Amino acid sequence: MKAQNFLQAGLVILAAWAVHAPAVAQSEIEILPATRMALGVETATVETANTSEGLSTPAIIIAPNGALQSATSPLDGVMADALTTPGADVKAGDPVAVIYSGAYADAAAELEARRLTMAHMAHLAERADELLKLGLRSEQEADEAHHDAISARLSFEALNTRLEYVQRGERPGQFLLTAPVAGTVTHVRAGAGEMIDAGAPVVSILASDVFWAHAQLSERHAAALKTGAPVMVENMSAKGKIVSVDPEIDPATRSLDVVVELPSEREWRLGAMLTLTFEAAPDKGALLVPAKAIVRIGGAEFIFIETEKGFRTTPVEVVSRSRQHALIRGRDLAPGDQVAVAGLAALKNIASGV
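^ thats the sequence. predicted structure below, dont judge the formating
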């Protein structure tokens, strides 16, 4: 019965404010204890920000620079068979795909021809040096022989590098594409019967046990982000660290990119989402309040400070914010003050004259 009377009293007070309060934030709100109880208003204490406070933000797991490599086809062809699947571990040189290409036989024959030419030109260069010593060749002729030998070697090495990760297949026109590095397969880019362009990645391999996470943070936090600084990872005691902070602010989103190296104590998966909390030393003069204490009225941010008669509506500047806490600055705000953290909708309506 008493609770019902409290609720009725609260509604009467709220209705009175809705009629008489102007449509701007009121600096003082008088609320009787009974009305406060009926509206469910609760408070928390303003604290000095003695320790680092963080900003929580979503991030996506990515591969470190250079860690994701691909087995690429050196020739146009058709995928005959994939010899691996995503998630499989491979060693360098393991066959990962069978590809048919009408140009493979010609390329293999050309490689052998260039190898023979290279050997022949190297022999002629050696012979030219011997004849030069005997006075039977000029220096110019010897230099030309060495030039031809070098050209033949470079020609062979160019094609050999192109076919470095290729082995002869069991059937004519087929070759085995091999893994360039050891690691874990992340993607098989083509299925059986699909066309493959020369130079196109066929199998992607993650050649690292280190994982990064990419996040975007508001420009107002840029000054607090330092390379090497620790970063808290959701549900983990171990911390990551900042690898890089983009020096350029995105003009459209007013945010900047941050890359974090994740702790190795957990198995990560590329593309997965997680929450990171970036630690930041509190600004001088900033105070710590629960994040839920902050409300927006007319495009500005306010808190409700408890007074003897009710609450005082106080504008604040939010320095940083996480899910649980916020660092703020504000006039007439001091450690030990009590701020409203529940019943805020009612207080906001009263302060706004709604």
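Residues 6-24 have pLDDT under 50 and may be disordered.
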